[in-house]
Amino acid sequence: MDKLTTSSCTGSQWGARFFLIAGCFMFINVALLWIRMFTNYQLSILWPAIPAVTAFSFSVLGLFKLYPLARVETPLTAKSGLGFVFLAGISLSVVIVWIFALSVFGDGIPQPGPQGLLISIVLFMLAMVLAFVSNAVAFLKHKVRKIGYLLTAPVAMWALMLVVGVLQGMERGLSLDYYTNVVHAIAFLGLGYALRPTKKH
Do residues 143 and 1 lie in contact, with contact meaning Cβ atoms separated by under 8 Å? Predict the structure, then answer.
């Protein structure tokens, strides 16, 4: 069965809302990135960073809300996914505090960014990849394949960024967000739609 019933997805409404909000903020991020890239308008990198961080924050909350659903048939996989969600949340918090400190007490985010900040971002990406993979496996085993497939889309994009980062440097890998964040936005919105409980008649 590829649909969630109301009784089997308690709490998924909040997960759906979190992913929908994440998708909307990610599209804002993409719009600002493209304005910065394709126009002569001088836009600080801070402006697209704010909606991106907000989008990923809500996606972490969305993943957290998936745990009660994922543990139904694959409790061990779901628990590992939950652990990676917490690691992603911690590393993302470090990134948020770092960006805030640079913006308020410094001269903004330098280009290229500080090595520690880049490492924190990469750690967040690794944790998110593993969190999404764990949840994708859980939902594919649970035969909720639509959600499982949607969870693999961000994984593919982060994997691409990590491979490019290893081969050509972290700065080059992270610069792919001009394009990969489009896929993230679509996947988040798709998850928000798919997680909506269906009413039983």
Answer: yes
CA dist 129 and 135 (Å) reads 10
pTM (2 d.p.): 0.81
Q: Angle formed by the axes of helices 46-70 and 115-141, to 10°? A: 30
CB-based contacts of 100, cutoff 8 Å, min separation 6 = none
Q: Which percentage of the chain shows pLDDT scores above 70?
A: 87
Q: What are phi and psi of 140, to 5 degrees?
A: -65, -35
Q: What angle do CA 83, 133, 146 make, to 5 degrees?
A: 120
* Per-residue confidence band for 40, with pLDDT thresholds at 50, 70 and 90: confident
What lies within 8 Å, CB to CB, of 190 at 6+ separation is 23, 150, 153
Kind and range of the H or E run holding 177:
helix 177-194
Q: Check if the beta carbon of residue 97 is closer than 8 Å to that of residue 51.
A: no
